[in-house]
Amino acid sequence: MNPSQNLKGKRKRHCRKKKKKKPTKKTAGGNLPISQLVPGEVWNDISPNFAIFFALNKGEPCSAAVAPPLLGSLLPSPVRLPAHKSPSSTALRPHPATFQPRIFPSARENLAFAVLAPYGEKYSGGCSVLAWPVVGVVRTAMRRRGGVGDSGGGSGGDIVRAEGKLGVAQHGRAGRWWLPWLRTLLLAPLLTYVSFPFLIRLFPSLLNKFVYLNFLSFPLFVDFRRPELLVNNTINLYLTTEPGVTVGIWHTVPSSRGAEAQGKDQRWYEEALADAHPVIIYLHGNGGTRAARHRVQFLKAMGAADFHILALDYRGYADSTGYPSENGFNTDVLALYDWVKARSGNSSILFWGHSLGTGIATNAARKLQEERGVQIGAVVLESPYTNIRDAAANIPITKIFRQFPGFGYLILDSMARAGMFFPSDENVKMLSCPLLILHADDDGVVPPKLGHQLYETALQAYRDKSKVKLITFPQKLGLGHDYISFHPELPALVKDFLNMK
């Protein structure tokens, strides 16, 4: 071979080698495998402070996206990287460039690669091998070209081999397995909070469950047919208030007739209603049954004060049939009143409502007066509210929604659409019977201010001001919303108001 030809061949090969070493500018839209992502490359079309994320599964195409590291937590991928500060720009803007799908059979299972690519600079800011969905399990520092200690080629395989042992990745993955669950737990309440008011507006009947709470049938495992297990001198009975609806009732006789009541049947109890002792029709609040602790205490306390008490579980509560509704409650109470009136002779009959039952009591008393011309003996309201809309606006459970835009329209106005009013403030304007209001200063469910407002409304409407009375119980007694019946002087206070000896 001619020596000059040999020399020319060497020069050509030497030139080709030099051309290989010459840095090339590659774009983010290039079709690059991991093996070609080497230190020192410059991508001029990458926006400032953006990171490229590769979600890789072994033997599957890589999906790539360009996104700012500062917004990494908002991506579907849980990968997060520290922001790379670029002196050239402070703006963050979306970038349309994405890598084309490629197959990388050598990639470890469930690993993700992230490359920091500042605008116009080498991507030497750092390269991380991240275990899905854990961040920062394995990190391999990438040096700038010309820096101390070359990376040794910088191929994708080298990056994984440097610190990408599967055991380390698995350890990180096990240590952070709860991150996706935590994100779900945080997101679910937020979605519920935002969607709930709109669901209520679209389906106002959903409010029935939240207002009546009839599905909370406490206490559990109660045999309603055997009330004597909880309170003496009491019998269970059932009353059909309209076709298809039967309600459960406990009848407690005065303690003065307790010895006589032993072993007696329902007929004797019915006849006892005519013994001239006053009769209380007790209308409980939402949730629970007539066997609840504070309701049983009421039966004991007022029975000991020589009252007959008939404790009613409205339709849909306890062992009563049917479904709860305001009109249905009115029907149940008036049917029980008629049943008692037919057996009690000239005995005085009172409506005693507690909490939700106060609205039911004033509804029934007004209907009797306006539709039948009958005045009830008295109405006692324990822990009352003005109307159900005001109650919903003030009870603790709605506190988190009060700052929600459109709270009044979406939730409060929906109560009327669901057929719930319980307008005690309007009802008391029409009543003329004695009206006693009881409220504890430490009521944490229905604010005492609503009881005071109802009292002021009634006082202005009544011609005979002596028929309206408000009794408050100081906070130090700790009676709250449910336990006024435990106050030892309650029977005496009621008797004094009714001018009973």
UniProtKB/TrEMBL annotation:
An MF annotation (GO) of this entry: monoacylglycerol lipase activity
InterPro entries named among the record's database cross-references: AB_hydrolase_1, AB_hydrolase_fold
GO cellular component labels: endoplasmic reticulum membrane
GO biological process: monoacylglycerol catabolic process; phosphatidylserine catabolic process
SUPFAM superfamilies: alpha/beta-Hydrolases (SSF53474)
Domain AB hydrolase-1 stretches: 278-384
Biased composition (Basic residues): 8-25
Chain residue ranges for the region called Disordered: 1-32
Domain of life from the UniProt record: Eukaryota
Name by which UniProt lists this protein: AB hydrolase-1 domain-containing protein
Organism: Junco hyemalis
